[in-house]
Specification:
The complex is a heterotrimer of chains A (327), B (407) and C (295).
Chain A (H helix, E strand, L loop, with lengths): L2 H4 L2 H26 L6 H24 L7 H17 L5 H23 L4 H21 L16 E2 L3 E2 L3 H24 L1 H11 L1 H6 L4 H27 L9 H14 L6 H17 L7 H15 L3 H14 L1
Antiparallel strand pairs in A: 1-2
Helix pairs in contact in A: 3-7, 3-10, 3-11, 3-12, 4-5, 4-10, 5-6, 5-10, 7-8, 7-10, 8-10, 11-12, 11-14
Chain B lengths: L1 H16 L16 E7 L10 H15 L2 E2 L2 E9 L4 H15 L3 E4 L3 H14 L2 E4 L16 E3 L4 H14 L4 E7 L2 H16 L3 E8 L7 H10 L3 E5 L2 H13 L8 E4 L4 H7 L1 H4 L3 E4 L7 H14 L5 H20 L4 H10 L11 E2 L5 E2 L2 E6 L12 E7 L1 H4 L14
Parallel strand pairs in B: 1-3, 1-4, 4-5, 5-6, 7-8, 7-9, 9-10
Antiparallel strand pairs in B: 2-3, 11-14, 12-13, 14-15
Helix pairs in contact in B: 2-12, 3-4, 5-6, 12-13
Chain C lengths: L2 E2 L2 E2 H32 L6 H19 L3 H22 L9 H23 L15 E3 L4 E3 H23 L1 H11 L1 H6 L4 H23 L11 H14 L4 H21 L7 H12 L10
Antiparallel strand pairs in C: 1-2, 3-4
Helix pairs in contact in C: 1-5, 1-8, 1-9, 1-10, 2-3, 2-4, 2-8, 2-9, 3-8, 5-6, 9-10, 9-11
The chains are: A mainly alpha (327), B alpha/beta (407), C mainly alpha (295).
């Protein structure tokens, strides 16, 4: 076909940009496929699950402008439900376990979202925090979670009933696939008309209302998707580590995901991934070194520096520089 | 399996013998090194009872052993579990995956221990637990891959609670830490109190950890029970005891029973607050010459007297290394089997033996905290009142729910 | 024995009184938060850390400088308050023009730094501070034995809270403060040094937290993490009372203490959670809080 010759310069530039983006994505996927041969797969899986968690959180904060201080509740719900089901019903395959765990997080997201989106700004943050505290209490008291002891020895099982996930390598590729699916969902949501409306709400809610958008419905949907993806991250994490514990439900976890997102870049697609990677690596490296006890101090410093000077985060700052110099 | 392994190992050794002076045993020590991981709370509530002191005790054992087994060097890794089950389990998983660690020692909070033993079982490595209390570790959670060395909630109840009921403290109010260890201890105490003719009239479960015990103490006061049983540990016990002192519990005629009190707790609270307290311990540094001699050496390194957990880390590591030396292997099942065959008698354990459920049973002691007047030094804190023979102290195998025990 | 829903009257009354004493801490802490929020519009996540620093300064002052309890009661809030002012000048001021969420995030980072640093030097197991001699012993109230020190805490906290309320609502300085809350630009044009007012306010709010820390030192184990779990409860108190409302913070603080006390009688496991339940209910029914003005 001769269509290439009829392309306008604008379309041509667009086409090139798309190609560059696709090449970039492809390169990242190749890196992801080769990574377990270079680094410790369990560590990589931890990075991927937290990256997914941070992406989920970022969908809400970065694109809908809603700061949730209770996202740990969804991570924990996914984890506990999946963990409990897989331990109690040995016939259940891991992908079904994850599906049900994610479903539980979605349901919780609907309930919490319906309440929380009625308030804005700091009040929204406080409502989500309070709801997450109720969940924390529930998970301490409910017998199926093992309370303070947590759920242990969750079997990794056989994917689709026949692929054993016992080896770290097999598990890694499964987690990588889940991460890609989760990331694709976020990517689609952000670049769809739905994402555009979210951004419009973030920038000016009254205007979005006056344009006739059902703002609450959009916010709720964003909240539910975010909750579901956080649950997906939690479910996957439970299978990787074969345990679910209260650490995931504690409000510190809600704070940590904010840090990851902020560090990487709020409202950028890759920001949360970079942020999660950095925070997890930092914790991992420091934990085994003499500086082990300084993890929180260093995280705190990063927090302060980010807020004072790098509010767009690492990816955000790089994008800014790139735009300034190349466009 | 072992046969094939041994044949294989010796054939390799024979092949190698032409070039090297044969060290046949070393061929079965994986990677030619004995690798030990020490996992404990190094910074939190349980730091002082195990923590860095336990690591030092582990190092002492390795030094005393000579630093190597049959020519294979001994390497030590250590990590802080922060009393978090997932941190602990992930650390051990990484040790096993990337460093091929053969044995994990230490382990304090029961929740961390249970998580870690799952990882050990899956990867067929050995765990020797010195710090944890829950008797469930060798009961419903038993596995062929771990050993519980120092004490558990069963003898704690058997020693302290029984002695107190015998002295006339027959009505109890339980203050219980709301997690597995607390529940296990509460259950064991309730059973002992009722069997001895006493009665538990009430109780309350508090979050772990709790800073403010005032309202729970108030409830205990309102219950009219003679004894307030503390089924908690570490800082929680210390807080409960000091709050009780503020509220004049003892003056009003009630007595406190600390069911899990460590040497460092008594040292921290002082004899004024704790005098007269009855407690059960697996070991006491000043209990005889052998114990004293070891403890003086420990004291020179740490500037503190060792707790039973720290002494237990030394004792268990020593036995482990002896087993590795004797069997020429660091395979979990081989070592554990050998350890079960040997009676255990050292500065720490008396009449000790390792049972098939993984419980190391040994004589336990009922002790009383001295009054300031009777104490002759900073660490002269306990008086041993009675010895509880090993076979009576621990849960009998006939009551065991462990699947390794044939009932 | 008289029973109330299956609980002896003595225990019931005792729990309420203890709840009220805990409520005094909530009141002091949430008052500081409310003052800060009122003028700076910042949710001060470092508030728990400041409370902790107050307790630590008291402990270390006694250990190394021989400063006794009574001197600490005065000195500690001063020192920690000054420290707060330095933070405000150096850090918070630089983000004053941004979305208030950044203030929350910045102070959250600061809290991590303070706590983490102290954990490195002192661990988390907590040290004890002796009850001052003049406040030892207790009163026999009939339904309970009330330690003198706890009675003192209640009294001291109430006096400071009411004093603060009086200053803000009834004095000229307070009038500036309230006006600054409403319209800082206008105040500036009237020749009031608003930046200084902001610095002083932050210092004062932080000093209140430090004062609570001194009061807490002989009661609770002094540990680097003592503030962080209290903090989110205090947030809840401020939100329930209406953010920025002075009287709301005080009354809600005491009220939540009572509710917690009641919960401890009937369902002790939920004592740490009940406040969040109340918070959700209040936010759903009265978004601006019990004492707040509708925006």
């Amino acid at each position: 076909m001769a269509t290439t010759q009829t392309l306008t310069p604008v379309m041509e530039r667009q086409r090139r940009a798309n190609m560059r983006r696709n090449a970039f994505y492809l390169a990242l996927i190749v890196v992801g496929l080769l990574a377990p041969f270079v680094a410790y797969p369990v560590f990589l899986m931890k990075v991927l699950t937290f990256a997914l968690f941070a992406c989920a959180f970022n969908l809400l904060l970065g694109y809908a402008g809603l700061l949730s201080f209770g996202h740990a509740a969804f991570l924990a719900t996914g984890g506990y439900v999946t963990g409990y089901l897989l331990s109690s019903y040995p016939g259940l395959t891991p992908e079904l376990g994850i599906l049900i765990g994610t479903g539980a997080a979605v349901l919780l997201g609907v309930a919490f979202g319906a309440l929380a989106i009625r308030r804005q700004g700091i009040y929204f943050a406080m409502v989500t925090l309070a709801l997450a505290q109720l969940m924390f209490f529930f998970y301490i008291q409910a017998p199926f979670t093992g309370g303070e002891d947590g759920l242990h020895g969750v079997p990794r099982g056989h994917l689709f009933g026949f692929i054993s996930l016992r080896s770290n390598l097999a598990m890694y590729y499964f987690v990588f696939a889940i991460f890609l699916i989760g990331f694709a969902i976020v990517q689609r949501a952000v670049h769809s008309p739905f994402g555009q409306v979210l951004k419009a709400i973030r920038e000016n809610e009254p205007r979005a209302v006056s344009l006739g958008y059902n703002v609450d419905a959009y916010k709720l949907l964003a909240f539910v998707i975010s909750a579901g993806l956080a649950g997906l991250a939690g479910s996957t994490k439970t299978i990787v580590f074969q345990l679910a514990s209260l650490t995931d439900a504690h409000w510190h976890m809600s704070g940590e995901v904010i840090l990851m997102t902020l560090l990487g870049g709020v409202g950028t697609l890759f920001g949360p991934v970079v942020g999660a990677g950095l925070v997890v690596s930092l914790q991992h490296m420091l934990a085994q070194s003499p500086l082990g006890n300084w993890v929180n101090v260093i995280l705190g410093l990063i927090f302060v520096i980010c807020v004072l000077s790098f509010r767009s985060g690492i990816v955000g700052e790089i994008t800014k520089m790139y735009r300034k110099n190349f466009k | 399996m072992t046969f094939i392994k041994k044949t294989l190992a010796s054939s390799i050794a024979i092949a190698a013998a032409a070039a090297l002076a044969a060290t046949t045993a070393q061929a079965e020590i994986s990677d030619g090194e004995v690798r030990i991981g020490y996992l404990a709370d190094m910074s939190g509530t349980y730091r002082d009872l195990a923590g860095p002191g336990g690591l030092e005790a582990l190092r002492m054992a390795i030094e005393d052993f000579g630093g190597s087994v049959n020519g294979a060097p001994i390497e030590v890794f250590s990590a802080d579990d922060r009393n978090s089950a997932d941190v602990g389990a992930n650390t051990v998983r990484e040790w096993v995956d990337t460093r091929n660690v053969d044995m994990v020692a230490g382990m304090v909070a029961s929740s961390v221990t249970i998580a870690v033993t799952n990882v050990l079982k899956e990867n067929d490595k050995l765990g020797i637990i010195s710090g944890s209390a829950a008797s469930s570790i060798t009961n419903e959670h038993c596995s062929p891959n771990h050993i519980h060395w120092v004490y558990d909630t069963y003898p704690l109840a058997n020693g302290t609670a029984k002695a107190i009921v015998d002295q006339g403290g027959d009505s109890w109010f339980m203050l219980t830490a709301d997690y597995a260890f607390g529940h296990a201890l509460e259950g064991d105490v309730t059973r002992v109190v009722e069997e001895s003719g006493g009665e538990v009239v009430g109780g309350v479960r508090h979050p772990f950890p709790t800073d403010d015990f005032s309202s729970y103490i108030l409830q205990a006061q309102g219950s009219g029970a003679k004894i307030i049983g503390l089924a908690n540990a570490g800082a929680d016990t210390v807080n409960a005891i000091s709050t009780a002192a503020q509220f004049g519990v003892v003056e009003a005629g009630q007595q406190l029973a600390g069911l899990l009190v460590f040497l460092n707790d008594v040292h921290a609270m002082g004899l004024d607050t704790t005098q007269g307290l009855l407690l059960t311990t697996g070991w006491y540094w000043d209990m005889d010459d052998e114990a004293r001699e070891w403890s003086e050496r420990y004291y020179e390194r740490m500037d503190r007297m060792p707790t039973m957990v720290q002494a237990g880390v030394y004792s268990s590591t020593m036995h482990y290394l002896q087993a590795v030396e004797a069997t020429g292997s660091d395979d979990a099942a081989t070592v554990r089997e050998y350890m079960m065959e040997q009676p255990i008698n050292d500065f720490f354990a008396r009449n000790g033996r390792l049972r098939e459920d993984g419980r190391m049973i040994h004589d336990m002691y009922l002790a009383q905290v001295k009054s300031p007047a009777d104490s002759t030094g900073e660490w002269d804190l306990y008086e041993i009142l009675a010895t509880i023979p090993a076979e009576e102290a621990y849960r009998p195998l006939s009551e065991s729910q462990c699947n390794l025990v044939q009932n | 024995m008289t029973m109330i829903f299956g609980v002896p009257l003595a225990v019931f009354m005792g729990q309420l009184l203890l709840g009220l004493i805990n409520g005094a801490f909530y009141a002091l802490l949430s008052l500081g938060l409310a003052v800060i929020f009122g003028l700076l519009k910042i949710v001060n996540f470092a508030h728990g850390a400041m409370y902790m620093l107050g307790a630590f300064a008291t402990l270390l002052g006694m250990r190394y400088l021989g400063i006794n309890y009574w001197a600490a009661l005065l000195l500690t809030p001063l020192v920690v308050g000054l420290f707060g002012m330095v933070i405000e000048r150096l850090l918070l001021r630089r983000i004053g023009h941004l979305d208030h969420l950044y203030g929350l995030l910045l102070t959250f980072g600061l809290a991590l730094i303070f706590e983490g640093t102290l954990v490195n030097f002192f661990g988390v197991s907590g040290a004890r501070y002796p009850t001052p001699e003049a406040l030892q012993g207790g009163f026999q109230l009939g339904f309970m034995f009330l330690p003198v020190y706890r009675a003192w805490v209640l009294l001291a906290a109430l006096v400071v809270c009411l004093g603060t309320w009086f200053i803000i609502e009834r004095t000229r300085l307070g009038a500036y403060l309230r006006a600054g809350t409403e319209n800082p630009a206008l105040m500036q044009s009237f020749g009031v040094n608003v930046p200084l007012l902001i610095t002083l306010t932050y210092g004062f709010g932080v000093a209140l937290a430090a004062f609570a820390g001194v009061l807490a030192a002989p009661l609770y184990p002094v540990s680097p993490t003592m503030g962080s779990n209290l903090l989110i409860v205090v947030f809840a108190v401020v939100v329930i009372g209406g953010m920025g409302s002075i009287l709301g913070a005080i009354l809600t603080g005491l009220g939540m203490g009572l509710i917690e006390g009641l919960t401890k009688v009937y369902y002790p496991e939920a004592a740490n959670t009940v406040i969040f339940l109340v918070m959700i209910l209040v936010l759903m029914l009265r978004p601006a809080g019990l004492f707040g003005k509708e925006a």
